[in-house]
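Need tokens for this chain, all 218 residues.
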Amino acid sequence: MVLTMEPQTGTSSTPNTPHAVSRHVLIVEDETRLREMLTRAVKEMGFTASPVSSAEAALRLADAQIFGIAILDLNLPGMSGMELLQALRKKHPDLQVIILTGFGDLEAAKRAIHCEVVDFLTKPCALGTLEVSLDRARRRSLKTISPQAPESQPPPMQFIAPPPPSGAAMSLEELEQRHILTTLAKNGGNRTQTAAQLGISLRKLYYRLEQYQRDGLL
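Here are the structure tokens for all 218 residues:
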């Protein structure tokens, strides 16, 4: 499984095929650090991401590009997240929305239920939870955009296990590398399950896989 890293940009050249659209994510979050974290995580999970910091910018971008998924913070400056959700529902009814909620957003979250959102994530959200929500949203998006489109399957995982040094024991780094890649292969590329079995965070697993990709092991 190859982790793809897309450049962060306000415009996108993502092909408008059903599978590409279902992986195109609009991120609406006004907190800079959280927006950057979400953007990085979404890309590491194999999606393309277009981040914005306001509802107004989100509406302009949604009119200019085709998105399958939106991750939406309810607590936004200017136009509220709830107002944005209602506007998106009217103009882009096929858009699958994942809501980010804080402790003070309970009433808004209750109203959002009637807009048929995919999921509610509490800030800060765990990466494993985000990955599950994105996959659920992607599947819904694909069925909505193209009901007859076959479900895309990731290619079989292939990796090159590092051979032990000739006449010497493997280093701790090489042992860890072999263990992670072997566990990942056994789980068919499921990173959440692999991280749980390895007893490491999903973030650390993503970091290691990015290293291995640069080394030509993925």
